[in-house]
Specification:
Layout (H helix, E strand, L loop, with lengths): L24 H29 L4 H6 L5 H16 L1 H11 L3 H19 L10 H12 L2 H15 L5 H6 L1 H19 L6 H8 L2 H10 L7 H6 L3 H12 L7 H21 L3 H4 L5 H16 L3 H14 L5 H25 L5 H28 L5 H21 L2 H9 L2 H32 L3 H20 L13 H4 L4 H24 L7 H5 L1
Helix pairs in contact: 1-7, 1-9, 1-11, 1-17, 3-6, 3-22, 4-7, 4-22, 5-6, 5-7, 5-10, 5-11, 7-22, 9-10, 9-18, 13-14, 14-25, 16-21, 16-22, 16-23, 17-20, 17-22, 18-20, 19-20, 19-23
Length: 530
């Protein structure tokens, strides 16, 4: 029980305590809804990986007119550049029209962008580069709205007992999609024609079509429904999915009262301008954390491996298409296992502790990667031990990187309260896309220009990130989504006042029952008076 609220929500009886899934139909339905959102992140990971994997295929280079490092960097940055503009638009759409429309937009742009990309270079005399860049830009207009909205939906529909785990598993689906993309690219790398890269790209249509259909079955989130005057629908959501149909479920009653009252207190600030929003206690801290949680994973060096691993392996002396895609597939499988482990561990490990331990390990790993690559390069690519060490360091570096990665997708939506969630995720998206565009463009040129020295650039950046995390991250483990506000505002938070009122009412009700019952063996006052 928290001192600030007086309510130990985790101990409140609930349907999941008596009916475990899959017999608990409400909980099973929630897991199904989560799986639909996971498909989108799977698709995001698949798309991101094959974009890097295709660069190892000779026919892709031929069909696109053999683009140089500058052009490849611009191509990868195109999706992020377009994505920067989508944050403010999505913040309006997600609060005005609901959570599902941005997800529909994501599936449509993924299908359209895939078709445009697949036909790149088909026409004789057409290098295909411009069409492929257009494909990346179209897809890039859909990914940010999806990422912003799906994370909000995941947090808002999840059962409170399973919310941290479901949210933490989010990025593991990116790695799963990345692994499947690597396997398919590895298989098609043996084809000696354009289908070696067109098949992996074309297959993006399958999950996109499934998701466009399946998302229609996902209900609107109760927080959105309450905020838009649809309280009866929101109450039915809690009863059906969190209480397994039991309208008298105690946890459902607590969630309902807490959420309804908290949103009512917060709702006024939702209509504020940015200037007014920043005056509210804790909001600057929240927005700063949203920005920090994308600055850290985007500029920790991992994007070099994700988007340019064929270039990284080439610097280690591995240049064959089959070898490159094969190692990439193994690395993705390894990353998937690590992310699952990291997601599961969030149930036991505090958020701050995970970051503060992982980041020094990343700095050491990046320094070792630069050193081993430097030795290999200075030997004229003859020092096999250094080459093997360079490849091994990629795998070792991925341990702290992927183990901590699930946190960075669950944490931003956690720390943003309902009234700030749309605006806050817009900030998250803008910073995410800006750093992504920078990294995608600069990484290609830097690796081509200064080679192994570029790894060392990230060591001081990682050090600065660690300092920022140490001083500004707040712990969210053990709180409901509403109660996280207490970490920023203390007892002045809206939810703290609500929970204190609920606790008082519960205590008063219990005192009333005790008075009516009386001491053991005594006649109650009610009986005497009758």
């Amino acid at each position: 029980m928290t001192v600030e609220t007086g309510v130990n929500w985790a101990a409140i009886p609930n349907a999941v305590d008596f009916v475990q899934w899959p017999k608990n139909r409400g909980l099973a339905s929630l897991f199904f809804f989560a799986s639909i959102l996971y498909v989108g992140q799977f698709l995001n990971g698949y798309d991101g990986t094959i974009t890097g994997g295709l660069q190892a295929l000779p026919d892709w280079h031929t069909d696109l007119g053999n683009p140089n490092a500058n052009k490849i960097g611009l191509m990868n940055a195109a999706a992020y550049i377009v994505g920067i503009c989508m944050g403010p638009i999505n913040a309006y759409v997600v609060d005005r029209f609901g959570r599902k429309w941005p997800i529909r937009w994501f599936t449509i742009t993924m299908m359209l962008g895939t078709i445009v990309g697949v036909i790149a270079g088909v026409k004789q005399g057409n290098t295909g580069y411009a069409l492929f860049v257009a494909s990346r830009a179209i897809i890039g207009s859909g990914i940010p709205p999806f990422l912003m909205t799906a994370q909000i939906m995941m947090q808002e529909i999840a059962h409170p007992r399973f919310r941290p785990q479901l949210a933490a598993l989010w990025d593991a689906n990116w790695v799963f999609g990345s692994t499947i993309g690597s396997l398919i690219t590895f298989g098609t790398s043996y084809l000696q024609n354009s289908w070696s890269w067109r098949i992996p790209y074309l297959l993006q249509l399958v999950p996109a079509i499934y998701m466009l259909v399946a998302v229609q079955f996902v209900p609107e989130t109760p927080r959105y429904l309450i905020a838009n005057g649809r309280e009866e629908e929101a109450h039915e959501f809690f009863i059906k999915y969190h209480g397994n149909g039991n309208a008298e479920d105690e946890l459902v009653a607590f969630e309902w009262e807490e959420m309804k009252a908290t949103i009512a207190l917060e709702e006024a600030s939702k209509k504020y301008s940015w200037k007014q929003v920043l005056k509210i206690p804790g909001n600057k801290h929240r927005l700063g954390l949203a920005a920090l949680m994308t600055f850290m994973p985007q500029l920790n060096g991992s994007n070099i491996i994700t988007m340019y691993y064929s270039v990284v392996l080439a610097q280690c002396g591995i240049k064959g298409a089959a070898q490159t895609t094969g190692i990439g597939t193994g690395l993705n499988m390894w990353s998937f296992i690590l992310q699952l482990s990291g997601a599961y561990s969030l149930k036991y490990i505090k958020r701050r502790h995970m970051v503060l331990v992982a980041w020094p390990c990343l700095a050491l790993g990046m320094a070792a990667m630069g050193a081993s690559n430097g030795v290999y390069a200075k030997s004229g690519q003859t020092n096999k031990a250094a080459g093997i060490a360079s490849v091994a360091m990629v795998w070792i570096y991925s341990i702290p990187n992927n183990f901590s990665q699930p946190l960075f997708y669950s944490y931003p939506a956690e720390v943003l309260n309902y009234s700030l969630r749309g605006k806050g995720m817009a900030v998250w998206n803008t910073v995410n896309q800006a750093w992504g565009a920078y990294g995608s463009y600069v990484n290609s040129i830097a690796l081509d220009t200064i080679g192994w020295k570029y790894y060392l650039v990230f060591v001081p950046i990682l050090s600065v990130q660690w300092v920022l995390a140490y001083f500004f991250m707040v712990e969210t483990k053990g709180f409901t989504l509403e109660e996280i506000a207490i970490a920023f505002e203390g007892t002045g938070a809206a939810v703290s006042k609500v929970d204190q009122r609920i606790a008082r009412e519960n205590n008063d009700a219990q005192d009333g029952k005790d008075l009516e019952k009386g001491p053991e063996g005594a006649v109650s006052v009610a009986v005497i008076e009758s």
